[in-house]
Amino acid sequence: MIHDLEKKFKDIQSYIHKKFSDFEDSNDIDVSRDEWKRPEGGGGITQVIANGNFFDNCAINFSSIYGKDLPKAALARTLSKKAEYGYRAMGISVISHPKNPHIPTSHMNVRIFAILDQNNDIADWWVGGGYDLTPFLPYEEDIIQWHSSAKAALEPFGKNFYEDFSNNCNKYFEIPHRNERRGVGGIFFDNLTDFTSINESMKFLKSVAECYVDSYSNIINKRKETQYDEIQKEFQLFRRGRYAEFNLIYDRGTSFGLQSNGRIESILASLPSDVKWSYKKSPEYDLLQENLLNYINKDWNV
Predict the structure, then answer these.
(1) Is the pTM of this model over 0.85?
(2) Which of 48, 60, 189, 258 has the fewest CB atoms within 10 Å distance of its CB?
(3) Could you tell me if 188 and 112 are in contact, meaning their C-beta atoms sit under 8 angstroms apart?
(4) What are 30-80's pLDDT values in tens digits?
(5) C-beta of residue 98 within 8 angstroms of C-beta of residue 125
C-alpha cells in the first residue's frame, strides 16, 4: 500500500514538472533533481527550475518520511489511539515564482498523514493540502476564474467543500504582523477524514493537483506576454518579502519539515530567489500597494 501511494504522488510530481517545464524556452535554465534520504527514515525527490526565461525559481517537491513521534505541526485530529507504532507522511509541495510580475506566485500541496500499526501497515489516515494565489499586479477576472475552477472541481467530492476550504484558506494565509493576507486565497483543508478508503483520498488529492495546474496555466497563458517595467518588477520583489515572512514565521509545512528533521535545502527551496526589503518606499510603490491591498484583503469566495 505505501509503495503504491508513493508512486501515485511521484506521478503527480512528474506531471506538474512537465507542465511547468513547458513554459521555459531557454537552454540555459538550471534544472535540479535531487533524491535524498532522511536519517530518521524516508526521503524524497526535490526538483527545482531556476534562472529561466519564465521562472525565477519553481520548486516541485515529493517527500515520504516516517518516524516514531508525530510532529506537532502535523496537526493530527484527536485520535482514539496513540501513534505507538509510528507514522508515515507523504505528499507533494509546489511553489512557483515567475519572473513576470503580471503572473502571480502560486502554491499547492497535497499530503497524507498515516498512523501505522505493529505490522507497519496503515491503521488510520487523514489528508491535507490546498492551493492559493499571490498576485502583485492583480486582475479580477483571473481571481474569479481561480475560485470558480476550485468550486467546480470540489463539488463532486462534497457540497460544502469549496465554501469551507475557501474560508479556511482566507484564515490560514493571514499575516498578523502585517494585518493583511498573503494573497487572494484559494482552498485549504487539513485533518480531512471524509473518505472511506485511501484510494478515494488519493483520487481527491489528484483532482486538487490537476485543478491547480489547469487554473494556474490558464492565468499564465493570458499574462505571459504582458510587458512590465522596472517599477513593477521592483514592487514584485518587495511583495515577495511578505511571502518569505509568512513561510518562515507561520507556515505549517515549514514547521513540520523542521520539526521532523527534514532536508533544509528542500524545505527552503520554496522561498523566492530574489526578494527585497527596504525601509523607504517610492510614491509608485505606495500606489501599487494600495491597489493590491484592495484585492488581497477581500473575500473572493464565489
Answers:
(1) yes
(2) 258
(3) no
(4) 889 999 998 888 999 999 999 899 999 999 999 999 888 766 655 445 444
(5) no
Q: How far is Cα 50 from Cα 102, in angstroms, rounded to an integer? A: 18
254 is a domain residue = yes
Question: Residue 255: helix, strand or coil by DSSP?
Answer: helix
Write the CA distances from 63 to 58, 124, 201, 231, 266, integer angstroms. 16, 19, 17, 38, 9
- Confirm whether 280 is domain-assigned: yes
Here the CATH number for the domain that contains residue 71 is 3.40.1500.10
Work out whether strand 174-175 and strand 180-181 pair parallel, antiparallel, or are unpaired: antiparallel
Q: Would you please indicate which residues are annotated as catalytic (active-site) residues? A: 107
C-alpha cell at 237: 520583489
Count up the domains in the chain and report the number.
1
**Per this entry, what is the length of the chain?**
302
Whole-number percent of the chain with pLDDT over 70: 94
* Residue 302 domain flag: no
